[in-house]
Structures are given as structure tokens and as C-alpha cells.
Specification:
homodimer; about 160 residues; four-stranded antiparallel β-sheet; binds threonine
Chain lengths: ~160, ~160
């Protein structure tokens, strides 16, 4: 009988960047991710919502290791040159909380519980990228340790901290 | 030696819904997800980007099984009553492609390859929710089968189709 949540991780080494107002045409996402991969930059969480700008453009956000941030400008510069309305925007300092659960697809409401545990501490959720097997959300960096602690507590995993 | 991508799945049973312009305060995400869970509605992909509306509100998008769509209005109605500027908006018909790879965190550029395979067919990527272990994106429903086929081909998994 699988536990609903198997492990919860806190990542304090990520920084969040968005490419704002990119052309919403095939190839855009591929170009951005390829340029960063070619620069040896690993992307952790990639988020693109369904929202569009008035000119039809989109935002694509991702998180990357803080140490890689300085190389990202150089990596993306050739692409951004082709997109006059697009630019890079840094988010505030973040912490990423992710919970992996073998039990999660079958267990309704795991994400709700994680979000509730975090909300009860008055911590705002800044980004969400969740799939059946993994609930991942981003909070302000200063709230990371608290968020990890309360989510652990919520699932009775107090003694199994994983970073 | 782990393959970069272990399995690629196509889900044609999901529909995409956004809750538009919800209050960006602790508890909002928890309330939405709890209400849906209480109505026995499983959420597959939950996406919240960093974007804000002019009034500070946010959008939260999710995908759910088509059969559950009719129950979602009822489930969310008590919450939406408290948020006068918020409303539900349906996306167009979608297909969800997700690739799981044991090799993915160590292998740079897996997302880039998946997005490139899809882009080469002229298929637009509508939403992205990707983490280290799983690349998940959404295309128009009519493009789903083609997207699955080309991603399989790209990773040499032509003979291991999984739905
Ligand atoms: C915005 C970006 O995702 C674009 N739609 C693409 O397919 O690459
Ligand atoms: C918008 C929503 O994610 C809100 N910030 C919350 O914490 O619940």
C-alpha cells in the first residue's frame, strides 16, 4: 500500500526567470530550451500557462540553478535578437517545494493538502507546476524551510527530511 | 545506463480549464484544489505562472478528465461566489504529451528535443508543465497522435507506444 507522498524536497538553489512576450509559434519553446541546454544550463521547472499577451505573445518561465543565471543572458541573446518584443525578467528569490508520491495519481487531493499546509502558514504560492506524480510549487525563498517543515508535518513525514 | 526517455504517453481524455483572476493570497490554490478533490475530480496538470493581472490577480489552469468537466462548475461555484472578478474559462480541445525519463535530470536538453520534435511538425505548444523527471506539454487535440508519433521517433521508441 503506497504512501500518498513518498518524499518532499526543498530546493533553495534555484532562481526563476521568465522570457516575456515570445512569439506563440512552433519552435519558440524548442529554441529557448535548446539554447540553454547548449550552454549546459539545466532547467528544472518549465511553466507556460495558456495566457497570451495582447499581441498574441506568450511567457515561458523556468527555474535554473543560481550559478547558471549569469550564463543564461549570453545563451539566449541570439534568440532574443530575433524577437524585438521579448525580454528576460527575473523573479524574486525563490524556494521550490516538490512532493513525489507513488500514491498520488490514485489519491485525490494531494496537491490540495500541500497547498493548504503552505497556506496555513500565511505563505503565498508563487508558481505551480504539477503533474500526476509530482506536486511542485514555488514560494518566496525566505519561506522555503517553513514550507518544507509544514508539508512534512502534514503527511506525517517529520522524521524523514530530504533536501 | 538509464535511457534518456523511458516512456511517452498521450492523453486524449483531458480538457483544460482556467480559473481566471483569482486573489493572489495564501489559500486560493488550496481552496480551488480542495473543492475539486471533494467533488472527486482528479486534476492532472496544474499550472500557475508568475504572471499577474493588473489588479494583482492570478490565473490557475488545470486539466481534468472530460467526464468531470460538468461537475467542476458546481464544485467551484461556492468559491467563485467569494471572488467577484474570478471566472472559469475553458481552453480548446487538448492532447497532453508527457515523457518520463529516469535519465532526464542528468541529461540536458530532453525538453528541448521533445519541443523540437513537436515543432518540426508545425504543431504549436499550448502549455508546458515540466519538472526534472517529467516533461509535459499540451497541444491541440487534433495534433496529439502526430505529436506522440514524432516524439517516439525522435527518441527511437517507435516500437514501444504507450497510451
Ligand atoms: C510559446 C511556445 O510554446 C510556442 N507555442 C511553441 O510551440 O514553441
Ligand atoms: C494564486 C494562488 O496560488 C495564491 N498565491 C495561493 O497561495 O494560494
Amino acid at each position: 500500500d503506497e504512501p500518498e507522498v513518498r518524499g518532499i524536497a526543498l530546493d533553495l538553489e534555484q532562481t526563476q526567470v521568465s522570457v516575456i512576450n515570445v512569439p506563440d509559434i512552433p519552435g519558440t519553446a524548442a529554441k529557448i530550451c535548446k539554447a540553454l541546454a547548449d550552454a549546459r544550463i539545466s532547467l528544472d521547472t518549465i511553466v507556460q500557462s495558456e495566457r497570451k499577451h495582447d499581441n498574441g505573445g506568450r511567457n515561458i518561465s523556468f527555474t535554473l540553478n543560481k550559478n547558471d543565471r549569469k550564463n543564461a543572458d549570453q545563451a539566449l541573446e541570439p534568440i532574443l535578437k530575433d524577437w524585438p518584443n521579448a525580454f528576460l525578467k527575473d523573479g524574486n528569490a525563490i524556494a521550490r517545494i516538490s512532493a513525489v508520491g507513488a500514491g498520488m495519481p490514485e489519491t485525490l487531493g494531494t496537491a490540495a493538502k500541500i497547498f493548504r499546509a503552505i497556506a496555513n502558514e500565511g505563505i503565498n504560492i508563487e508558481m505551480i507546476a504539477t503533474s500526476e506524480i509530482r506536486t511542485s510549487c514555488i514560494v518566496a525563498e525566505k519561506d522555503g524551510e517553513t514550507a518544507l517543515k509544514v508539508v512534512h508535518k502534514f503527511f506525517g513525514l517529520d522524521n524523514k527530511l530530504s533536501h
